[in-house]
Amino acid sequence: VTGTGPRGRITEDDIRAAMAAPDTQSSAENRQIVPKARQLARQHNIDLADVIGTGPGGRVLLADVENALSASDPASAYGDAVAESTPLTGLRKIISDRMSLSVRSMAQVTLTTEIDATELVKLRETLVSRWRSDRLRPMDQDMIVAATGDALKQHPRLNAYLQDDTVMLLKDVNIGVAMAVPDGLVVPVVDCVDQASLLDIAKRLRELAGKTRDNSLTIEDMTGAGFTITSLSNYDIDVFTPLVDPPQVAILGIGRISQKPVAVDGEIVVRSTMHASVTFD
Question: How many whole angstroms separate alpha carbon 164 and alpha carbon 257?
Answer without folding.
Answer: 39
